UniProtKB/TrEMBL annotation:
Binds 1 zinc ion per subunit. In the homodimer, two zinc ions are bound between subunits. It catalyses: (R)-S-lactoylglutathione = methylglyoxal + glutathione. Its EC number is 4.4.1.5. CDD domains: GlxI_Ni (cd16358). Belongs to the glyoxalase I family. The active site is at E215. GO terms for molecular function: lactoylglutathione lyase activity; metal ion binding. Keywords: Lyase, Metal-binding, Repeat, Zinc. This is lactoylglutathione lyase. It comes from Leersia perrieri.
Length: 368
């Protein structure tokens, strides 16, 4: 292909990408788009009354989405709860990424790449909406979990709140990684390497420039070093039941540590040493936590957002939580998503697996 033609193709692709990013960030009729920080979630400054980490339900203003597949829409037989709850057990879900806000994107990118060895996977500026995204992780997004950072122009700090716990990085030598962090990067070691209190696993803690905590965990080789998202919850049994029934997660491990008055549960879609898990922490007697406006949500891939949203809706009636954004295609991109709050108010965005992979093709190789 002649150079002229190649240039033309490049220009065309850039124009398509720009259109898609703008379409996504402009649509105000739906909740957060999982790849783009919901510009409504890419919040104005902390003090702004517009700071809407709202849980108000929002449905697409575009054509009314089809009734949830199998849901009664006048005259159709209601699906039995058994049928609805069969779906999460059959679905092929995957933890895709966690979305959160930072005060200086390049500082965090430098930190995560130099300290932890992450790769910058994608970066994209959306000047019309005054924010920039960057995706980092240890492998490509079609197989590995990613951290989706959001920088809102002019906002240099956020409130992380008390509910967000940590991300975790598995490493074969915590001592060595901690030394590297101390000597060569802008994170700081807040807990020296050593056996975890009440256990034997060697851990350390590092804190990034925005205050996010990274647990460094000693483990053997793993295909997914970015191994945990830890969130604090007010009722561990309720949460375990919710994540099992509504999202088909497996309870991989549960550990009570009475000497330190806490219990943790690891939930996910594969073994702990192979994939990213959600670590839920219950501190005895603590039923609620502030959530701040820094951490936004986790995105989970699914084979069918309609069926998955049905299951979430049903389980939420029993255990709490609520649908924020009914399932349906995003205007302009046709990626099917849904979003909801879990019983503790932690936000989750469900994303159609095949749509997500198509998007990665469109956005792959964007500016880094
Ligand atoms: C299993 C591993 O991934 C952990 O995260 S356990 C680490 C341990 N967790 C807690 O103490 C949870 C309760 C705590 N009050 C909280 O809310 O975070 C931990 O942080 N240990 C500290 C240590 O120095 O060992
Ligand atoms: Zn942990």
């Amino acid at each position: 292909m002649a150079a002229e033609e190649r240039r033309g193709m490049g220009v065309k692709r850039k124009a398509i990408e720009r259109h898609l990013w703008l379409a996504l960030s402009r649509s105000t009729s739906f909740g957060p788009f999982h790849l783009l920080p919901p510009h409504r979630d890419a919040d104005p400054p902390l003090h702004s009354p517009l700071n809407t980490n709202s849980s108000s339900s929002s449905s697409p203003s575009a054509a009314t989405p089809p009734p949830l597949e199998g849901m009664a829409s006048g005259g159709e037989a209601e699906k039995s709860p058994e049928v609805v709850l069969e779906w999460p057990k059959k679905d092929k879900k995957r933890l895709l990424h966690a979305v959160y806000r930072v005060g200086d994107l390049d500082r965090t990118i430098k930190c995560y790449t130099e300290c932890f060895g992450m790769k910058l996977l994608r970066k994209r500026d959306v000047p019309d909406e005054k924010y920039t995204n960057a995706f980092l992780g240890f492998g490509p997004e079609d197989t590995n979990f990613a951290l989706e950072l959001t920088y809102n122009y002019g906002v240099d700090k956020y409130d992380i709140g008390a509910g967000f716990g940590h991300f975790a990085i598995a490493t074969e030598d915590v001592y060595k990684l901690a030394e590297k962090v101390k000597s060569s990067c802008c994170c700081k070691i807040t807990r020296e390497p050593g056996p975890v209190k009440g256990g034997s696993t060697v851990i350390a803690f590092a804190q990034d420039p925005d205050g996010y905590m990274f647990e460094l965990i000693q483990r053997g080789p793993t295909p997914e070093p970015l191994c945990q998202v830890m969130l604090r919850v007010g009722d561990l049994e309720r949460s375990i039941k919710f994540y099992e029934k509504a999202l088909g997660m497996k309870l991989l491990r549960k550990k009570d540590v009475p000497d330190y008055k806490y219990t943790i549960a690891m939930l996910g879609y594969d073994d702990e040493d192979k994939t990213t898990v959600i670590e839920l922490t219950y501190n005895y007697g603590v039923t609620e936590y502030s959530k701040g406006n820094a951490y936004a949500q986790v995105a989970i891939g699914t084979e069918d957002v309609y069926k998955s949203a049905e299951a979430v809706e049903l389980v939420s009636k029993e255990l709490g939580g609520k649908i924020l954004r009914q399932p349906g295609p995003l205007p302009g991109l046709n990626t099917k998503i849904a979003s909801f709050l879990d019983p503790d108010g932690w936000k989750v965005v469900l994303v159609d697996n095949s749509d997500f992979l198509k998007e990665l093709q469109v956005f792959s190789g964007t500016d880094k």
